[in-house]
Amino acid sequence: MKSINQERKLTQSQKMMVFVLSMSLFGLSKMITEILPSNEVGPIEFSISYFAFIPLILAALFHPLYVALGASVGNIVFAGLLMGDFGGIGEIEGFIEFTLAIYVAGLLVRNPLNKMQLAVAALVGVGIDQLLSTIVDIGKVWFGVEGFDAVPGLPESIVVLEGVSFLNEMIITGVLFGLIPTLLLTPKLYGKIEPLLGMNPRKAKVQVSVGAYITPGLIFSIVVLTFVAMIAEFIAEMDMNLAFWSGDFIAQFADDQKWIGYSAWAILAVGIIYVIFKFVKKNKNNKMDLDEAA
Amino acid sequence: MSVFQKFFSKLTVENIKIELMRTAYGNEQTPLARLDPRMLILWVLVYSIIPWLTHNMTILIGLTLFTAVLAYLSRVSPLLIILLIIGVISQFTYLVFAATFLGNSYAALIAVIPVALKVSCVSLATMAVFTSMDPEKFSDALLKMGVPGKFSFGVSYGYRMLPILIEEYQSIIHSFRLRGKQPEKPGFLYVRYIYYYAKMCVVAFYPMMLNTAKRTRTTVEALEVRGFSYTLENNVAKDLKLGYLKMKKYDVQFLAITLLVTASVYTTGVLMPL
């Protein structure tokens, strides 16, 4: 982790440039894919969900974290808010999954000119995103969250459909619009796009061992964030009373689903404590700034 | 059929760009545009949660109608409305299809209606708000509410730049088409055409990335010369920048009307559930 950070050290304004670049490019591409018609053959949809190659290339060339955050924000702002397609709480799931996927993919690339690493990163990146959302979707049926149990045949068909759509996504989004363009465009952009942002290209020859960046901290945060994403999506899909403060909140879960409610409570509590902590700290800073100005 | 043909003939890049411009640089005259942006953000947050709190059909229909009226008053572009309708329909067709095909019953169709209403209510509310709010105000409101400065800047920048980016992308595509040659035969299932256009869409991002990188750097450096990062960190500078955001009488009136409508919708819903 440390060596990667040293290797890709960015100044404050460069971080912002990378963030804005990734956000606007991915937002634009997402808008294009929204408008493109999709072909449906029966229930299976053949469409491009996003141009995966854009964040993948940028994550390989620049700092993966800022690229990943930028791409997710661009997705929400342009495809969500501007196009009026905002999913509410369910949007958290997509945000976390996509950020994680691109971040991990970016970490996997140590040498942006190495085709093997790029290919692995592209497939792993899209794979993580699609796999997580498929797991969450199947989980919804598994735990009976969607409340369609009464309809015979639906749970089984959803599992089958999700499996097929995962494969379909991996081929179209992952390979055709992820792997192939990444392999073609990264070597072309390497050394050209970095000077435009006022930085040196990454050194191609830096050797970092795999263990250096897959730290326990990263794995831990992946697990925790995936869990948060799952709970958010379940709650959004369960179509239920969100009155966290009332005792009825837990009561509306079936016995084997109570853990979803308790987890939502825990996440909310941690979030509130964090916000309060930040707020207290900010007030302190505020005072200091005033003293400075005076 | 003719309705669809009419719609798709209007669906050109030029039109989409104009619609987006309208969304981004909303008209000042609409009732929602005169509100304090913080009020709008709060309102849209509340209204994107409320529909999920109930199963009562009357309440859901009432809320959807209310947001539809607001969307109409804010002159949301018809393109977005049509995209919303297509989206809502296509989101649920496959579920219903699967259920009727495998389970042989229409129960799923009825189970899906409330969810569709909730989704459209939330979408209408967000569209109304974001059509009425210009990017500058939106980012200032976010900043005032304690969102990190980098994020709020990025949002307003992207919001502003998007129409320009779309235009640039379009002109790159045009130049590719001028220099390239469309396949003579469509091939099996238009495979050759699809390949030709898909490749163009991807390859066009190569010059696009370089141009955007250059533009981003120019903007960020111009901002840094004016001490942009410092103003975002320093609270005194922030107060100066955000001083114009004030809740006025009009905001209170809007709040009162919203509360009144929501309350009456809920009362009707409780008294006459569908």
From TrEMBL, chain A:
InterPro entries: DUF8171 (IPR058484). The chain crosses the membrane at residues 49-82, 94-113, 210-236, 259-280. The lineage of its organism: Bacteria, Bacillati, Bacillota, Bacilli, Bacillales. The keyword DNA damage does not apply. Residues 17-283 form the DUF8171 domain. This is Cell division protein FtsQ. It comes from the Bacteria. Keywords: Cell cycle, Cell division, Membrane, Transmembrane, Transmembrane helix. The keyword Transmembrane helix applies. It comes from Oceanobacillus jordanicus. GO terms for biological process: cell division.
